[in-house]
Amino acid sequence: ELIRQGEALKRTEQMVDKMDQDLKTSQRHINSIKSVWGGLVNYFKAKPPESKPEQNGAPEYYANSRLKEAMMSSKEEESKYQESHPNLRKLDNSDDDFNKADLVSSVQRDAYPKNQQLRAYHQKIDNNLDEMSSGLSRLKSLALGLQTEIEEQDDMLDRLTKKVETLDVNIKNTDRKVRQL
Hints:
Layout: H1 2-34, H2 36-44, H3 65-84, H4 96-103, H5 106-109, H6 116-180
């Protein structure tokens, strides 16, 4: 959604730039109509540069690279996450979790209590904490990507606001000049 909004902002900014260019062209025409001197000045004055035509009417917008990376890594981990998420995976009441305790190295076994059931619960808690840690790390990278994208779009909005305010003043001035003709 944020990327779509960024694309819309980019299109809006390009339309405002086009409107500004059209307004400058209108001002040149008004000067030509207003007086002979204005026509001569416009004749010798350099024409405003033409804007590049848009490709298929759709300007390109590139989202923040940090957000793209976060989204890609999140999508890569999504299936793994869904398999390991307690509410998304199938309930398995077998003793697989207890059998995992047999695979733990002797160094790690010393960190757990000697009681086998207590050891299995400690390992299960550790595994759950690891899953939470990886999920939080995913959320953090997504949040940082979103933050950067929002900051860039905020700057774009500030720029767009200034352009629109300037364009509004110019349109009012041009309208006043046309009415005087």
